[in-house]
Amino acid sequence: MEVAKLDGLMPAGLALARDGRVFVAAANCRGGGAILAMQPDGTGLRTVVPESAGLFPNDLVLDAVDGLYVTDCRGTVGDSSGGVWYVPPDGAAPVPVVRNLAVANGVALSPEGRRLWVGEFALGRLYRLDLVGATALAPFGAVTAHHFSGPAPDTVRVDAEGRVYVALYGQGRVLILSREGLPIGQVLLPGRDEGRNLSLSSLAIRPGSWVVAIVSSDGGRGGSATIFRAEALGNGLALRTPDAA
User: Fold this and answer.
1) CA within 20 to 30 Å of 169's CA: 103, 157, 162, 212, which one?
2) What is the pLDDT of residue 180?
3) What are phi and psi of 173, to 5 degrees?
4) Where is the signal peptide (predicted)?
């Protein structure tokens, strides 16, 4: 069922607010894009960050006060022009959190809201960023938690205990890491050894359950996209509230 039409924009990432609003990271075909918000039925569509801001939004996550961390997926292997930005809840201009990333992609926030996880698609890295306030990094708080072999970290999610789930685009695999960033498990999609379902691009863990939904496709092989159901290692994270921050 179509709930909204985004003229000239392609939805790349979604985040759900406590009040039911859906925030959308939407890209255009010119290396830019916008952040939008709407009601679940598509009404009340408005622009949060316009295309004129110069970002290339890919994914986003809300904090406890409805501020947004947004990945800017500009760049290539040899061009680290992307990064992570914070959009304050009062509608002020985006503030840089991390610069000089090569195709920043997935982003997730720990349950307590003090640790940010960011995937760098072009260079195959997962960053663990300890925050002071909304936009500053703690001293010695930024580390490369994991280097991936092969392609390529896409969506990043956390569960209620802080474990990290990374969708590996091109591998048909979800890597699961501890809250410190150590690999502790994985989910392998069926058909990956035959080259099927490798284009794994997104996942979500249902709040209050151990059910993870995984979105993948056959890419250019002519197959369709599929949503798979698998078991997480813990409960999905509930919507954040200010008291939980």
Assistant:
1) 162
2) 96
3) -150, 145
4) none
